[in-house]
Write a structure and sequence with these properties.
285 residues; alpha/beta; Rossmann fold; five-stranded mixed barrel; 9 strands; binds hypoxanthine
Length: 285
């Protein structure tokens, strides 16, 4: 069987990144910035930046709002490696390639992953611009045969059948709520449904996901979190609800990518502040 993921490629990419870092230690924590949230990387102190086009084997994003850069530095004094922009399944990459950067982080020794994304909110009482802490996910492509762990398992990297119970760390989720409370920030919590996209969901699909328990829907994150958990990383995730989904088939409005980017830009500072608070406490706990 042909391998969709070559572990030697991740090791080569990691070696290249290490080579760029000179005497600096590789951070143990990584952050992925979602659609429209790339400016979160601007709050990194003492940054070293390099375009992902220079990293061997790294999948390149083709989507507006995804800069495709790695930024290494610190947030609130906590060393982090920030992946500014990610690739999506809908761009045509095999699902294993979508999660390839996580394998590189694993090869670098990263142990904590914070994922962010843009998503459509599904709860009537919530609003566009709200931040949702991800409690769990529904991996719709995964349930239909697109799981990034399909293929031969490399036991050096993780177990054949990894658990996805508490994939989003309960202790960190409690910490996120505590910090949000201190900051006077409304933090929603819910279940993120990943769909492949790139078309937005039909009203019937949205009702299907909502009945299944989803609170937000987006086109990323699940493959990365599955691989991160396979790799034994601790994961924390946030969705920025850039729009409220339209369940009503007669609705005149529609969801647009511009709207997603605009709301992302407005909310990014709140998400950064929340992360700063969490990292401050995380670093000392
Ligand atoms: N659906 C899917 N993905 C999204 C949405 C949405 O409504 N908003 C932002 N990303």
């Amino acid at each position: 069987m042909e391998r969709a993921f070559d572990p030697t490629h991740a090791v080569e990419a990691a070696a290249w990144i290490r080579g760029q870092m000179g005497a600096r230690a590789v951070p143990m924590s990584a952050l992925i910035t979602g659609s429209g949230l790339g400016m979160m990387a601007d709050s990194v102190q003492a940054p070293v930046r390099f375009p992902t086009t220079e990293i061997p084997h790294w999948p390149q994003s083709t989507v507006e709002g995804h800069a495709g850069r790695l930024v290494v530095g610190s947030i609130a004094g906590h060393p982090v490696i920030v992946m500014q922009g990610r690739v999506h399944f809908y761009e045509g990459y095999p699902i294993q390639q979508v999660a390839f950067p996580i394998r590189v982080l694993q090869a670098l020794g990263v142990q904590r992953l914070i994922v962010t994304n843009a998503a459509g909110g599904m709860e009537k009482s919530w609003a566009a611009g709200d931040i949702m802490l991800i409690r769990d996910h529904i991996n719709v492509p995964g349930m239909a045969g697109q799981n990034p762990l399909i293929g031969p398992n490399n036991t050096q990297l993780g177990p054949r059948f990894p658990s996805m119970a508490n994939a989003y760390d309960p202790t960190l989720r409690a910490l996120a709520h505590e910090v949000a409370r201190e900051q006077g920030l409304t933090l929603r919590e819910g279940i993120y449904a990943m769909v492949s996209g790139p078309s937005y969901e039909t009203p019937a699909e949205l009702r299907f996901l909502h009945v299944a328990g989803a609170h937000a829907v987006g086109m990323s994150t699940a493959p990365e979190v599955i691989v991160a958990r396979h790799a034994g990383m601790t994961v924390l995730g946030f969705s920025l609800l850039t729009n409220m989904v339209l369940f009503d088939p007669t609705a005149e409005e529609e969801t647009t990518h511009d709207e997603v980017l605009e709301v992302g830009a407005l909310a990014a500072p709140r998400l950064v502040r929340l992360l700063e608070g969490i990292l401050t406490r995380w670093a000392t706990s």
